[in-house]
Write a structure and sequence with these properties.
Order of helices and strands: EHEHEEHHHHHEHEHHEH
Shape: globular
Strand order of the largest sheet: 1-2-3-4-5-6-7
Largest sheet: 7 strands, mixed
Structural class: alpha/beta
CATH class of the largest domain: Alpha Beta
CATH superfamily of the largest domain: Metal-dependent hydrolases
Radius of gyration: 18 Å
Helix content: 40-55%
Distance between the termini: 26 Å
């Protein structure tokens, strides 16, 4: 089995790249992808500890488009040392910092006593909403059970403390950056949107040069506001697999792991083999 969507302490994951690789080995995974938010800083450490498991250099880029408050583009098999990509991630990092400052201000208006400086101490390279959520859990344990609960109440996309980025990256720019770094651009978790909007986004993504969609994904766990059971989640996976086939797009999948236990999604390694075939044909 494989897992092509994992986060480390380089962004907002709980485990260092080395720890994540070791955890994946213990799970018996054949291959993983390091896909930190808007940064590739965790890739080299993961590669340096990859004996016994295949580690794919990756990234997850946050984009903003009209009608879609936040779109995530995964990039696989990128050159994580590419100078233009590194300059691009520096720009993304500043966008993230400005956005998270604005979210903390909104939380302060709501009566939550946290500061940007105290949350920043929890951050590796890339500042994410889970860092803010962790600070809220620690300060307000009676209000929030865990990080997922914070997202469900105040930090979900479009939620009361959510703020869009003033300076933002477009989907076409993200796709172009991934391709320029030798990678394959994939649309992450399309099931986060209503099906009609998701289908429009997938076709738009394809027109812009996107090459695949994430079909295997634990929406029931990562998006609690959708209130999906595991059975309904399997139906959503089947639906997006059918869309990928119809649109002649590659499939990928992953747990979107940040913390807690690594989820067992049973993603077949044939998914990875097809990515490699497409990569060799570029």
């Amino acid at each position: 089995m494989i897992d092509l969507h994992l986060h480390t302490t380089a962004s907002d994951g709980r485990l260092t790249p080395k720890q994540l690789v070791e955890a994946a080995k213990k799970r018996g995974l054949k291959a993983i992808a390091i896909t930190d938010h808007d940064t590739v800083d965790g890739v080299q450490e993961a590669l340096d500890n990859a004996e016994g498991i295949e580690v794919i250099p990756g990234i997850e880029i946050s984009c903003y488009e009209k009608g879609y408050p936040e779109v995530h583009i995964l990039g696989y098999f990128i050159d994580h040392n590419d100078p233009k990509l590194l300059a691009f991630t520096k720009k993304l990092r500043q966008e993230r910092l400005d956005q998270k400052k604005a979210m903390i201000i909104e939380l302060n208006k709501m009566g939550y006593d946290i500061t940007y400086e105290e949350v920043l101490k929890k951050v590796g390279t890339s500042f994410g909403r889970p860092h803010i959520a962790q600070a809220l859990v620690e300060k307000y344990p009676k209000k929030f059970r865990d990080i997922r609960d914070v997202f469900k109440q105040v930090l979900f996309t479009g939620g009361p403390a959510y703020v869009e980025r003033e300076e933002s990256t477009s989907m076409s720019e993200a796709i172009a950056q991934v391709k320029a770094a030798g990678g394959i651009p994939i649309l992450a978790h399309p099931g986060a949107y209503p099906k009609f909007n998701a289908l429009k986004l997938i076709r738009w993504f394809k027109r812009e040069g996107g090459m695949g969609i994430e079909t295997y994904y634990p929406y029931y766990y990562k998006f609690p506001r959708l209130a999906l059971s595991r059975v309904l989640n399997k139906g959503l996976v089947r639906y997006f697999r059918s869309i990928a086939k119809k649109e002649k797009l590659l499939e990928t999948g992953g747990s979107d792991y940040h913390d807690g236990d690594m989820l067992d999604l049973k993603i077949p390694d044939s998914v990875l083999e097809k990515l490699k075939v497409r990569l060799s044909c570029r």
